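Posting this for the archive.
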Amino acid sequence: VRNYHKYERFTLVRPVPHTAFPELDDLEAQKKRIESGFEDTTEYLRKNPKGTDKDKMGAIVGNYLKHPGRSLQYMISELGHFWALYPDRLDTKSEEYLQSIRQKDRRIVSLKSTLWKMALMMSVLVMLPVFIFAVIGLIASHPLERRKLLLLLTIAALSLGYSLIYAEVRYRIPIEPYVLMFMAMGLIKFYKLYYALGAKMNDEQDEPRIEPSTLPASVSYRQPLASTERFE
């Protein structure tokens, strides 16, 4: 029903035309398309329900090959959105787009800036330790081993795949459990290092010290003491 209302035709899933892929000829224009909620894609599908030659896979892949430098630049920027500490694309900076969607549905309201900033702060405080310990666990767990490599490749494939098109924080939900696995390994590694360091410091404090002035003259500092000689 939603798709029929939006695209004026029945479709089970949203079609993916060439307008859903980045406009590498002009990255600034692509940024404005994202802020507008890809309204041009909706309009394109209404006018071309069956698509055009531009929607063929060869034309889409050729666009990336034609602009390798811009493709890499766009991918890096989208990776930042994919691994963001908070849902940075949940809202939009485009006032024009906000006004247009509010006219369609008055139930859509904007949150107060203070409340939104508090939500962002809480998200950062939760996700930052998760990512820090996940990186520690990734390094300490020898990720190139066969079983762990599968998890690593799954994370890389999904993040790189979305970065070529369009990325949001919610798109990484399928791989969040794998990130938490590496985070758990990082916590274990951190705990072991902390426990070992604490035990070493306790041993150094408990170890008795023998002052040279208390040793008999017949005992050399370099020789072990006889088993019958004890010093407090």
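Confidence is low (pLDDT under 50) at residues 227-232. The longest helix spans residues 176-206.
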